[in-house]
Amino acid sequence: MLDERSKVLLKALVERYIAEGQPVGSRTLSKAAGLDLSPATIRNVMSDLEELGLVTSPHTSAGRIPTPRGYRYFVDTMLTVRRAELSELQGLPGAETLVADQPRQVINQAAQLLSQLSHFVGVVRVPKRAVVFRHIEFLRLSERRVLVILVTPEGEVQNRILHPSVEITQDQLQAAANYLNAHCAGLTLDAVRERLRGEVEALRGEIAALMVRAVEASTEEAQRDDVVIAGERNLLEVDDFARDMDNLRRLFGLFEQKTQIMRLLDISAQADGVRIFIGGESQVVPYEELSVVSAPFEVDGQVVGTLGVIGPQRMPYERMIQIVDITAKLVGQALGQTRGE
Fold it and tell me: What is the pTM of this model?
């Protein structure tokens, strides 16, 4: 536990560093905190905070900056953010865009809105959907390459390339497609996979394995599409990242790969309200330089997805919390309207 003087100085230091991005010296901190303390007293307090792991001093400066632990203490004990009510949300710039005929449009617009308001990266975990196919075809491209063509009930065409372990003729592929279209059309891909596993003994081994793999590949693709990301290029304007191109490449690789973002948002779905992840304090956020502010959104009282803002540790957390909280409410409201139509 910190005494009141230490809390005031730490809060002033974090807020000053978030605003300016420069190490904060004792004289600047004295003015920012509004305390009548000597520079020597402030230096002593800073030394205590440094021993606690809440601040650190860069080698090039006598000033100090917050550590991930310092940000966490600030977020957990010093922020008081009033949660907005739905009646207050309609005046939010861009809120009118979250009205659409299709849930997918709402999700895409929400990611753009988060990015636009935060000036960082907006991410939305799409409500999980059951993947269904209306028709499937297999086309032999070569001895070890098979093209899978899957048509959804909405008319969307999806293509996959599979690599069977043995050569399969086009006649065998046609027989496999005929079987799936006759027995499995209209079922979810999860249901098709279970049916194939139950009937695998009645089918030729390699054909059955190919059919299962085709279904699994379609399911995996649908899951990768479950995260919508907007505004990655905003990070190019963040000083904390722009100085290090190797770091930027790693960050863009994170957005392209998506798996770790999905894991983080799945954890957020279990939270009641806004949750903040600060890089460097756990394995959840893969890079120390990043922070994530996230929240689940609900339809009819049920959590159906999560959304958030990804940016630098040095972000204005109070504003990000408000943006994420408000957008989660707006998305839940918009999705509720599309479901009711």
Answer: 0.70
